[in-house]
Amino acid sequence: MSENTPENGHPTATGPENGAHDASADPSSVDAYAGQIAVFSAEQPLTLECGENLSPFQIAYQTYGTLNDERSNAILICHALTGDQHVANDHPITGKPGWWTKMVGPGRPIDTDRFFVICSNVIGGCLGTTGPSAINPATGKPYGLDFPVITIRDMVRAQAMLIERLGIDSLFAVIGGSMGGMQVLQWAVTYPDKVFAAIPIATAAHHSSQNIAFHEAGRQAIMSDSDWHGGAYQDFRVRPHKGLAVARMIAHITYMSEQALQRKFGRNLQDRDAFTYGFDADFQIESYLRHQGFTFVDRFDANAYLYITRAMDYYDLRTEEEHLLADAFRGTETRFCVVSFTSDWLYPTAESRHIVNALNAVAANVSFVEIESDKGHDAFLLDEPEMFSTLSGFINSAAWQRGLTPAGEGA
Amino acid sequence: MIDPMIDIPSIKDRADLALIVDLVKAESRALDVGCGNGDLLATLTAVKNVDGRGLELSQAGVNACVTRGLSVIQGDADKDLSFYPDDAFDYVILSQTIQATHRPRYVLEELLRIGRHVIVSFPNFGFWKVRLFLLWQGRMPETESLNQPWYETPNIHFCTIRDFVILCEELGVHIDGAYAGKHGQSFKAITPHNQWANLLAEDAIFLLRRK
């Protein structure tokens, strides 16, 4: 696997020696990387599921294309755990192309010549949207662990406030993979009349025990780093690099399939002909994982990682009373296109099938495609022609039903 | 109004599909079980402005349908019909598929639960050429409609028109229409119990309703 391979919502970061900036150490400097920023003052608090109000807060976002006069052509893209708003432009910190340039752009399945595309950094994130590294107005210091625990629904509510701020009543489509797919489903459940078409990719309707287990291992790695300081590391002007890197390494394994690992790395040795009989990175896979871990810390905040993984763990669309997923979708008029990948073992096809069965049970309009790929969970970010062709078909048909003119025709 | 995103396939050489399109009322909701590459669904959507959905076993067929802009999911008629609610559709269509299901009786019951009207088409094993093939050659029949050897065919539950009518009676189903013909040519209405129809029809199409 090359170092340029995007993984889980991001182009691979370059190391500090290549001029990367330490984006999350100083919260005030992050705004420079944010793109556009929407500020919500004390009069517009975000009421969180945990009961607290987050206020004031801001959302960093990017847009592409032009909103039409009817304001009917907006597509919201929801990013994954370690993704951000830079979906189709070069990343301001790493300088690498946006994380979904194959999907989003002129002439792409999400055609920016035709649609107005919005992507915002989630609440709790670390690239301009208010998160644990932001300044707590009550103390004048970074929130750290005083930041309230957020949920997927909180992320979606914040996005809804942004969409309203942009003057958009209803979205033509909401699309995203992995945690982005969770937000897509949450949008369809929380704001059914604001979502014309929903495209959840490589995702699930709740986090499984195994999903939570992997996240907990990552969080423990961060919290056991002596530089973490109970989450107050910014006060000590250090960061828990080692713990965050290990968390990233653990997570990265879950994004790849066993087949792809075997194909790309096998048991190949890294720049050597024989074992060193030590604990250096003898194997290529070790070297690759270490690289993934140590470059990740340049662009991601450890506390943000804790908060966002927690949000995913708490996520469960099933109703509290009956534990029925179908009830969450009852009465929906949204068109769904559910996508999964054959080699994704993090959010396997069976999880998508649960979603499809629930949608069928309420006679919803749903398409479901499983894409043959050996690239594991990360396939949704990669070059998968069948994903592009099926999504183009779905999006074009939905656009016609929405009364949107095909690209290159009419006004 | 015709969705320009959906290409209308040529069904000139598919009299069975043309008849099914005729049987379905415009503006209705229809589920095509075993929709293949979506030719029938695309035609129903384009010609009758039907709100159409599909269920298809092969993933390649599903992906082809979704690429055409049709709402189709991967699934198995033997297992996945149970997820649909009662009366979810005006029409449920099972075209040239019932003979390939493991539990045809159960599938038919499920179709009648999900849809207010059910359209079933199947190759008639009572067709004279089929009977003669078995009689004279002593081998499993191969005809234009049934053109695969016994060890290759997905068809595991053949029936004759008479068998199908008896099953409908057992299930207490009302037969609103029965048609016989050859799927490449033309279909005409028949009396379901007519033994000559059972002898002369290569293919049969039934329009059913719960009593």
Explain the overall architecture.
The complex is a heterodimer of chains A (411) and B (211). Chain A is of the alpha/beta class and 411 residues long. Chain A is 31% helix and 15% strand. Chain A has eleven helices and 14 strands. Chain A has helices at 27-30, 152-165, 179-190, 209-223, 241-255, 258-264, 284-296, 302-314, 325-329, 349-361, 385-401, and strands spanning 36-40, 46-47, 53-54, 57-64, 74-78, 104-105, 110-111, 116-120, 135-136, 141-142, 171-177, 195-201, 335-341, 365-371. In chain A, strands 1-4-8-5-11-12-13-14 form an eight-stranded mixed β-sheet, with helices on both faces. In chain A, strands 2-3 form a two-stranded antiparallel sheet. Chain A has a two-stranded parallel ribbon with strand order 6-7. In chain A, helix 4 packs antiparallel against helix 5. Residues 1-25 of chain A have low confidence and may be disordered. With 211 residues, chain B is of the alpha/beta class. Chain B has one domain (15-127, 158-210): Vaccinia Virus protein VP39 (Rossmann fold). An eight-stranded mixed β-sheet of chain B has the order 3-2-1-4-5-8-6-7, with helices on both faces. In chain B, helix 2 (39-48) links the parallel strand 1 and strand 2. In chain B, 48% of the residues are buried. The model of chain B has no long low-confidence stretch (mean pLDDT 91). The A-B interface holds A 335, 337-338, 356-357, 360-363, 365-372, 386, 389-390, 392-394, 396-397, 399-401, 406 and B 3-6, 51, 53, 59, 62-63, 65-74, 80, 83-85, 88-89.
